[in-house]
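Hi L.,

You mentioned the student needs an example of a multi-chain input paired with its predicted structure. This one should do, with 940 residues in total across all chains.
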Amino acid sequence: MPPALLPDQDPRTPARIAASMHPVLGPDAVRAWFDEYARYSSATVTTTNLNRLEGWLIDPFTGDIRHRVGKFFTITGLAVDFPGGPVPRWQQPIIIQPEIGILGILVKEIDGVLHCLMQAKVEPGNPNGLQLSPTVQATRSNYTRVHGGKPVPYLEYFVDARQVIADVRQSEQGSWFLQKRNRNMIVEVDEDIEVLDGFRWMTLGDVHQLLAVDDVVNMDARTVLSCLPFAGVYDGDGRRESLVRSCSAGEGSLHSMGEVLSWITERRTRTEISTRTIPLAEVRGWYREPARIRHEDGLFFDVIGIGVTATGREVGNWMQPMLRPHGTGLVAFLVREIAGVLHVLVHARAEPGYVDVVELAPTVQCAPENYKHIPPPPYLDSVLAAGPDRTRFSAMLSEEGGRFYHARTSYRVVETDLDPLDEPPDFRWLTVHQLLDLLRHSHYVNVQARTMITCLHGMVAGLAGERTSR
Amino acid sequence: MPPALLPDQDPRTPARIAASMHPVLGPDAVRAWFDEYARYSSATVTTTNLNRLEGWLIDPFTGDIRHRVGKFFTITGLAVDFPGGPVPRWQQPIIIQPEIGILGILVKEIDGVLHCLMQAKVEPGNPNGLQLSPTVQATRSNYTRVHGGKPVPYLEYFVDARQVIADVRQSEQGSWFLQKRNRNMIVEVDEDIEVLDGFRWMTLGDVHQLLAVDDVVNMDARTVLSCLPFAGVYDGDGRRESLVRSCSAGEGSLHSMGEVLSWITERRTRTEISTRTIPLAEVRGWYREPARIRHEDGLFFDVIGIGVTATGREVGNWMQPMLRPHGTGLVAFLVREIAGVLHVLVHARAEPGYVDVVELAPTVQCAPENYKHIPPPPYLDSVLAAGPDRTRFSAMLSEEGGRFYHARTSYRVVETDLDPLDEPPDFRWLTVHQLLDLLRHSHYVNVQARTMITCLHGMVAGLAGERTSR
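Structure written out for the whole complex:
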């Protein structure tokens, strides 16, 4: 007998996501859990001379910083040609990490409601110790146990996944990583699972509510949750808010999907950006001191070395290089209603580390301090000038604490009255459901925009610190 | 007043495509047009010593063959590591052509029916002179006029396209090109257009009917037409054939799209293939003779030089290197009904030239003559053993005649009774509408599978030499 055919998506998924968007624990309970667990899990981090990172080598010929068994990652140099870009040519240090890791959240129905197995996890770059993390954050080195540490708990559910809700490789910071991608997975299990120390079941609503609290939900959790297929989840709930309509696949949009795809094709064809790796020792405009590699004007980031003494992790002591950005990042979507549907102003942004030329980024994505010598990016003024009445979301969130030291970004959703018909060539007004369509595939939505998608989802459910509800 | 919102796709598109699938001219009229035009447009091709290609240099240090002003393309060497692949390690010559060209078909409603502006075009590698080609085949060198030839006619309609029906960059042969991509475009115009010598308006049906004739519809026309959004075109015509249902987005499939995307993610994560360019002079196992670069066992292909004297093209005389494959290629989809819907057995295939590890390929894609020393690929036996009663489509078609010399491939659609539940890890049964969904994006469907999609579309309309109509 031939097998039965399946529809494109499990028809129960939207209702199950909607039902999980109610917070059960509340932020105070999570805070208490963090405080309790922090007594068992902590990390002491000290900065260290780059020449004395145990386990790491500075290549005598190239100056590249690499792990002694060739795993984890390497810091090398990159030469970038970007004719027509705001800076047409530059060189910089960059992280090469070619292996594809897994960022995975395990979900399970408990009392009929989907719960996520979240982890309270310390990363050495976190400014505040513990953050709320996915079930699994595993580099390939982690799960092949190159470092000889403990096995990564729950990894087996992702390596041999059966009930997959989301599974897509997504890029990370293209200014700091060369062609880095992680596999973002949401996997459901039916069987009972032992909850280890430092893990806790919570609803999607619990996680989303914590997005409004500074530095709690980590970058990996935010990017995995952006891949949740939530378009249409709120279609039937009777609300007609423009943000709800923006998440509904049945609503129209300023541009058809064909137009959006053609625009991306055009930007990727027209943008000429080329890169080549060069020895780290030869990167122009950067200087090596014992404690760091720094830009001649003190801009962008330093490469530093750290030593970590941790409890509650795979291994207890290690040293590693990290990137320490200068200044606080600013990431913002300008949003406006168009014919009753909320649209976000998306930027087709080239970064040297992207696999495919440009990805869709928030309207503004920068560290304002870096614009001492060059004109500020478009729309930065609009974001900085917006008062609280126009700011629908604002939180300070951390970037990945395993590679970046105290990298904090102010994420904002800001209302605007900009004319929707006045789009620069590299900007387009898109709906949230269009971004969700693109998020099923690699190479389209960058990591900063994915954080913003997760925040917008929290705002749909009335969580995530939405300030106004017009 | 805010602008109106658009649906995802122009709702008139399916009906307009269906109406254009009726042939108007018929093959004889096209043949007569070709015969007539061949008197004005021809190419005399002679093979030439590789050291004496005017306009081309052999780099004295690397042996790479490149154009003297650094445009068009370069032939260099590639070292491939593919642990777990059928051959775990090899070196080969490969074409590098980083610029993204345009392959475009202009369409226009004439007497209420969409017509395509097709071109009778000679390419030096064509085994038979003229072939039916898109309106425009332009490398960036072409349209920036590096070669100082005539302008490419109709190119302006694609560079500033307004009514875009399809626009996506797609890969080409990943065994012969390193990361080559062309922009496949279908653009509609309303205004009157002068029809130049060598061009002719014809319906989609006319083009599809010619697919069943050997070596007429060229590779570029086939790949552009595969990007036509024809899912759902035949939904309302009352037919219930399994192939028609396979093209209907509303029908189910053995795997949901989420499962298919997760499978592709898994194959791309698991497959370890790495490449690095090396000097052509250092490629192991290949020998340079005055007239060609050849493999030590006479397998795969030769690099040869040719001299061309052409009329009716951009320039009249030129020389260039080409790849001349050994033997005839074989490309086939095994197909079967599953619950009344035709499914095709797709292979997640790694080729060294792909940008993103694997793309979806036909069930079988090989040159059978190359398998003297290694086991034949899976399912080759099933395809070769199939008689005429199981062969629903068969035609000999040429690969791109601007880079490949007499590269001919037998394209087949073959019925099978294979158990649909018995899928090897790198094969999956997909419907045609699932492949069409993926064809909206880059990196998914390889050029051989795109030719097969166009043939399947012709078969839906009862064209393209369908042998049985069950």
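You could point out the following to them. Residues 36 and 250 of chain A are 45 Å apart (CA to CA). The domain at 13-470 of chain A is CATH 3.90.79.10 (Nucleoside Triphosphate Pyrophosphohydrolase).

Best wishes,
N.
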